[in-house]
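Changelog note: in this version the structure field was regenerated for every chain. One regenerated record is shown below for reference.
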Amino acid sequence: QNQVFAKRATFVIRDGKVLHTVFDWSPLGNVSKTLAWLEAHPPAGSTVQSLQGKAAPPIVAPIIANGEGGFDLSKQRGHGVYINFFASWCQPCQEEARTVAAVAREYSGSNVRVVGIAVLDTEKDAKSFARHYGLLYPIAFDASGSVGAAYRLAALPLHVFIGPDGVVRHYEPGGPISAAQLRAGLDSISH
């Protein structure tokens, strides 16, 4: 299922730091259709179509740090799965990284699987980010942007909490996420 996605990013920058990022995705295969789509769809704002209550879209992505092989969401059935979409250059991602790392360690012996998915980034920078912030959970890489598009990524970071039944229980765009919010999301998928 090879699709081409058009990506448009809008950055809010203050004092040289990226404070907020918004993305639009278009699953189109040629330039003229993509341009027509971009003209017909104004830049994304604060509203994001949530996947909450819906079956989680499939994910198969290579693991680039803290593991080998690939991450396949379908093989996680029976476990809660927390997905943290991030990029190394994203300011809110940087601000929440140590919190996510610490809370993920608290749940390491539970029925919850934690995975980070680097999007709109380079493999080298994503690996460096994971090392710098002490992320010990698997980091997968979304080179094409197709996973982000399937998850309606419109802002970074994006936090997705998937129940053991494969249904999205919580869908939290933006950040940084607090430890309390993260624990609440993880508790909701740990049963």
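Spot check on this record: The two ends are 33 Å apart (CA to CA). The helical segments are 31-40, 91-106, 123-132, 146-150, 179-188.
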